[in-house]
C-alpha cells in the first residue's frame, strides 16, 4: 500500500482541473455538463477493458507500494480516476478555447467542386486511419517489442476512424484553437507528468513489449503516443458532439424544436444527416451575421460568445437584421431614399407577420426591393420567435432619426427616452423574447412582461451610454442627441454643439447623461437574476461589457479613437462589478455609518497577534522541517529544545496566570455591602488553578502519547514515498492549516471557558 499514484493526482491532475473549472465557471451550461459527463462515461467504459487486458498480460504494471489497493478488473482506482480527470481536463480546455467560435458557420453543404474536395478529403482520412489500424495489427503480430504500440493503435484507431467519418468537416475547418491546441497543450503537459511518474516507478512498462526509444530522457515513445492518441480521441469526441449540435440547431427545417439536451440517438441522427440537405441560405445568413458583428460591434461580438449555441444563433440573426436596416437608412443618399427604405422594411415586416403572404411572396419582395448583400439578413430573421411591435417601433426610431434633417428632434428628457426606447429598448426587448422562447420560464406571464419591460429600460441605459460616447461622431453628421433643454441650461445652442462638440460644457452634459444611464441600469439590473439560469451570465456579461464604456467615459482622461471612447478588450470580456461613481454627486449622497466603532491601535494589534502567532508557528515548523530534511540539525535536538522551551514557557504562563487569579480573587472577595458580607463566600482559587493545571497536563500527555505512538507507523508508511511526494503533501497540509485555522477567537478565546474570574466567583 502506498500513496505515490494518488499523489500524482494531488500534484499534477487535480490542480489543473480546479483551475480550468474556475476559468470556465461563468460559462458553464447544462449542455456543457452533459457533454463532459457523456464523454467521461464513454472514455471510462471504452478504456477499462483495454487497460485491464494490458495489466493482466503484464504489458504494464503498478507496484503494490505505489497504489492504495482497491482495484476494478485489476485496474487500480487511481488509474480509473486518471481516465476521468484526463477526459475532464481536456474537455474543459476545449470548451474554453472554442467558446468564442461560432461553429455552425463552418458547416458546408458539399455541393459542386467544394463537395468533391470534401469527399476526397474524407476518403483520404479514412484510408489513413485504416492504415493506422493495420500497422497496429502488424506490430502485434510481427514483433513483441511493438506489442504496446500495436495495442494502442488497434484500440484507438477504430474510434478515430469513426469520429473522423462523422465530424471531418469540423476537424479540418475549425480554427486551430478549436482543434490542435486542445490536443497539443494537455499532451505536452501529460508527457512531463508521465516522465516524472516513470522515473519514480509509479507505473512500469514491460521491457519486452516496447521499442526502448525515448522521446526525451525518461519518456518512452509508447507513452508519448498513448497520451497524444487519447487526447485526440477526447477532442475528436467533443468536435463530433458540437458538429451534431450545430446541425441540430442550425437547420430548423430538418429538426423542429430540438431538445436542449438531445439524446445520443438524436445526436447520431444529426451527424448522419447528409450534407446535401444543409440549407445554403441559412449558412450564408449566419456567415454574414458573424461578419457584420465582428466589423460593427466589438462589444456585442465579445459578449455573444457567452450565450448558448442555439440562442446565440438567433441573437446573431436578430442583430444582423437590425444592423442592415440601420445601415440602409443611414447610408441613404437623401431623406427621400431613407424613407423609401423604411417603407420597404415595413412592407417586409407586414408580409412576414401576415397570414396571407406566402414564403415565396416574401422572398420575391426581398429580392426585388433590397440589395443582394442584405437579403439574407432579412430572410433569416427569426420572426416566428419575435413579436411584431418591437420591430415596428424600431422603424419608428429610424423615422425619428430622419427628422433631424429638418429640425432638432430631441427637446426634452422625455423625447430622449422615447427615441432610446425605439432604437435600443426594442432590441433588448426582443433579446429577452428569444431567451424565453428557447428557455421557457415557470414565472407568471405578468412577471415575464415585467422582465421584458425591464429589458427595454436596460436597452435605454445602453443607448444613453452610446450617445454619451458618440457626441463628436454624431455632430459630424449633423446630429445632437442631447436634449435642447439641457443645452439651454448650460448656455449652449444646437448649432454651437455641431460646430464645437468638444466644448467644456459638453463634458458636464455627458456626465449627466451617464448618471441617467446608470440610474436606469440600477433599476433594471435586478431583472437579470429572474431570467432563465442559462441566460443570466451571458446577459450580465453583455450588459456589463457595454456599461464599462460608460465607466470609462466617467473617468477624467479616457482614450478617444475616431471620436469615440475606447475600452481595452480585457475589460470588455470580464464580468465587471457595479462600481460606477458619479464624481459630482458622490459626496452629497455619502452617509456615515452610525454604528461605526473606531478601533484603538493597540487593541487592533492585540487582536492581530493570533494571526501573527499562528503564521510564525507555521514558519518555524517549516524551517525545522527543511533543516531536518537536509540533515542540518538532528530531530532529537529539535524535539528536545522544543520540549524544554514549551515547559519553560508553561511555567512563565502559569506564574502570570497565578498573578491574574490573585488579582481577580482579591477584587471578587472584597465585600461591597452588608448583604455581601453575610452571603456565601466564593471558593478558593486553588481548586480552579489545580483543575487548570490538571487539564493542561492531560492535554500535553495526550499529544505526546499520540506522537510517540504514531511516529513508527508514519515512518514505515512514508519510507517508500519519494521526497517530492513528501514535499507536495507537506505543502498541501500546511496551506490547508493556514487557510482553515480558526482566527476568529482572538488571543484569549481558548481560555474563555475557564477564566480566573469564573473559577473564583463560580
UniProtKB/TrEMBL annotation:
It catalyses: gamma-carotene = all-trans-beta-carotene; all-trans-lycopene = gamma-carotene; 2 (2E,6E,10E)-geranylgeranyl diphosphate = 15-cis-phytoene + 2 diphosphate. The keyword Iron does not apply. Its EC number is 2.5.1.32, 5.5.1.19. One of its GO terms (biological process) is carotenoid biosynthetic process. It is found in: Membrane. GO terms for molecular function: geranylgeranyl diphosphate synthase activity; intramolecular lyase activity; lycopene beta cyclase activity; squalene synthase [NAD(P)H] activity. InterPro entries: Isoprenoid_synthase_dom_sf, Lycopene_cyclase_dom, Plno_GlcNAc_GPI2, Squ/phyt_synthse, Squalene/phytoene_synthase_CS, Trans_IPPS_bact-type, Trans_IPPS_HH. It comes from the Eukaryota. Pathway: Carotenoid biosynthesis; beta-carotene biosynthesis; Glycolipid biosynthesis; glycosylphosphatidylinositol-anchor biosynthesis; Carotenoid biosynthesis; phytoene biosynthesis; all-trans-phytoene from geranylgeranyl diphosphate: step 1/1. Keywords: Carotenoid biosynthesis, GPI-anchor biosynthesis, Isomerase, Membrane, Multifunctional enzyme, Transferase, Transmembrane, Transmembrane helix. It is a multi-pass membrane protein. The chain crosses the membrane at residues 6-24, 36-55, 80-97, 118-137, 149-171, 601-629, 635-653. CDD domains: Trans_IPPS_HH (cd00683). GO terms for cellular component: membrane. In the C-terminal section; belongs to the phytoene/squalene synthase family. In the N-terminal section; belongs to the lycopene beta-cyclase family. This is Bifunctional lycopene cyclase/phytoene synthase. It comes from Alternaria alternata.
Amino acid at each position: 500500500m502506498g500513496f505515490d499514484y494518488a499523489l500524482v493526482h494531488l500534484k499534477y491532475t487535480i490542480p489543473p482541473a480546479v483551475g480550468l473549472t474556475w476559468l470556465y465557471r461563468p460559462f458553464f451550461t447544462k449542455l456543457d455538463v452533459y457533454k463532459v459527463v457523456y464523454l467521461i462515461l464513454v472514455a471510462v467504459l471504452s478504456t477499462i477493458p483495454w487497460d485491464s487486458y494490458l495489466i493482466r498480460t503484464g504489458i504494464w504494471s503498478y507496484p503494490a507500494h505505489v497504489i492504495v489497493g482497491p482495484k476494478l478488473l485489476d485496474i487500480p482506482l487511481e488509474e480509473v480516476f486518471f481516465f476521468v480527470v484526463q477526459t475532464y481536463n481536456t474537455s474543459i480546455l476545449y470548451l474554453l478555447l472554442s467558446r468564442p467560435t461560432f461553429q455552425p458557420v463552418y458547416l458546408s453543404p458539399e455541393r459542386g467542386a467544394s463537395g468533391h474536395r470534401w469527399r476526397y478529403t474524407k476518403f483520404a482520412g479514412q484510408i489513413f486511419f485504416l492504415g493506422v489500424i493495420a500497422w497496429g495489427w502488424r506490430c502485434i503480430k510481427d514483433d513483441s517489442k511493438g506489442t504496446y504500440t500495436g495495442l494502442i493503435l488497434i484500440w484507438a484507431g477504430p474510434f478515430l476512424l469513426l469520429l473522423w467519418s462523422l465530424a471531418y468537416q469540423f476537424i479540418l475547418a475549425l480554427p486551430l484553437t478549436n482543434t490542435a491546441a486542445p490536443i497539443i497543450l494537455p499532451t505536452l503537459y501529460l508527457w512531463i507528468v508521465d516522465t516524472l511518474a516513470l522515473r519514480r516507478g509509479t507505473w512500469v512498462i514491460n521491457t519486452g513489449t516496447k521499442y526502448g526509444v525515448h522521446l526525451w530522457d525518461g519518456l518512452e515513445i509508447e507513452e508519448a503516443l498513448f497520451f497524444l492518441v487519447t487526447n485526440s480521441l477526447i477532442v475528436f469526441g467533443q468536435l463530433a458532439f458540437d458538429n451534431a449540435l450545430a446541425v441540430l440547431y442550425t437547420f430548423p427545417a430538418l429538426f423542429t424544436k430540438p431538445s436542449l439536451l438531445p439524446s445520443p440517438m438524436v445526436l447520431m441522427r444529426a451527424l448522419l444527416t447528409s450534407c446535401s440537405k444543409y440549407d445554403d441560405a441559412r449558412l450564408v445568413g449566419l456567415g454574414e451575421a458573424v461578419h457584420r458583428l465582428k466589423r460593427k460591434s466589438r462589444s456585442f461580438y465579445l459578449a455573444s460568445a457567452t450565450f448558448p449555441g442555439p440562442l446565440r444563433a438567433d441573437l446573431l440573426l436578430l442583430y444582423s437584421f437590425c444592423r442592415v436596416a440601420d445601415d440602409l437608412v443611414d447610408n441613404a443618399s437623401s431623406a427621400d431614399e431613407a424613407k423609401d427604405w423604411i417603407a420597404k422594411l415595413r412592407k417586409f415586416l407586414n408580409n412576414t407577420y401576415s397570414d396571407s403572404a406566402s414564403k415565396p411572396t416574401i422572398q420575391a419582395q426581398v429580392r426585388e426591393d433590397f440589395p443582394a448583400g442584405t437579403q439574407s439578413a432579412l430572410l433569416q430573421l427569426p420572426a416566428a420567435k419575435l413579436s411584431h411591435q418591437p420591430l415596428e417601433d424600431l422603424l419608428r426610431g429610424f423615422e425619428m432619426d430622419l427628422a433631424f434633417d429638418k429640425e432638432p428632434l430631441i427637446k426634452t428628457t422625455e423625447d430622449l427616452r422615447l427615441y432610446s426606447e425605439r432604437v435600443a429598448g426594442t432590441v433588448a426587448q426582443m433579446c429577452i423574447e428569444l431567451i424565453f422562447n428557447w428557455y421557457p420560464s415557470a414565472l407568471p406571464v405578468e412577471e415575464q412582461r415585467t422582465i421584458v419591460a425591464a429589458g427595454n429600460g436596460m436597452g435605454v441605459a445602453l443607448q444613453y451610454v452610446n450617445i454619451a460616447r458618440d457626441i463628436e461622431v454624431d455632430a459630424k453628421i449633423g446630429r445632437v442627441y442631447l436634449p435642447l433643454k439641457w443645452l439651454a441650461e448650460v448656455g449652449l445652442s444646437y448649432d454651437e454643439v455641431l460646430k464645437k462638440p468638444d466644448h467644456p460644457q459638453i463634458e458636464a452634459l455627458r456626465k449627466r447623461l451617464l448618471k441617467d444611464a446608470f440610474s436606469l441600469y440600477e433599476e433594471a439590473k435586478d431583472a437579470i437574476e429572474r431570467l432563465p439560469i442559462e441566460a443570466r451570465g451571458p446577459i450580465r456579461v453583455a450588459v456589463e461589457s457595454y456599461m464599462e464604456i460608460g465607466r470609462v467615459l466617467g473617468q477624467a482622461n479616457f482614450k478617444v479613437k475616431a471620436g469615440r471612447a475606447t475600452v481595452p478588450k480585457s475589460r470588455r470580456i470580464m464580468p465587471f462589478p457595479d462600481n460606477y461613481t458619479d464624481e459630482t454627486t458622490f459626496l452629497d449622497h455619502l452617509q456615515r455609518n452610525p454604528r461605526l466603532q473606531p478601533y484603538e491601535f493597540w487593541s487592533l494589534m492585540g487582536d492581530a497577534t493570533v494571526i501573527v502567532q499562528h503564521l510564525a508557528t507555521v514558519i518555524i515548523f517549516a524551517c525545522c522541517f527543511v533543516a531536518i530534511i537536509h540533515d542540518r540539525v538532528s530531530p532529537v535536538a529539535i524535539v528536545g529544545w522544543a520540549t524544554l522551551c514549551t515547559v519553560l514557557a508553561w511555567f512563565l504562563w502559569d506564574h502570570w496566570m497565578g498573578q491574574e487569579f490573585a488579582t481577580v480573587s482579591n477584587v471578587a472577595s472584597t465585600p461591597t455591602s452588608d448583604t455581601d458580607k453575610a452571603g456565601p463566600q466564593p471558593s478558593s482559587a486553588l481548586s480552579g488553578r489545580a483543575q487548570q493545571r490538571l487539564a493542561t497536563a492531560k492535554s500535553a500527555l495526550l499529544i505526546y502519547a499520540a506522537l510517540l505512538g504514531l511516529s513508527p507507523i508514519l515512518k514505515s508508511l512514508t519510507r517508500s514515498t519519494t521526497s517530492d511526494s513528501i514535499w507536495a503533501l507537506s505543502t498541501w497540509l500546511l496551506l490547508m492549516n493556514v487557510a482553515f485555522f480558526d482566527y476568529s477567537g482572538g488571543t484569549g478565546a481558548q481560555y474563555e471557558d475557564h477564566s480566573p474570574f469564573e473559577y473564583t466567583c463560580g
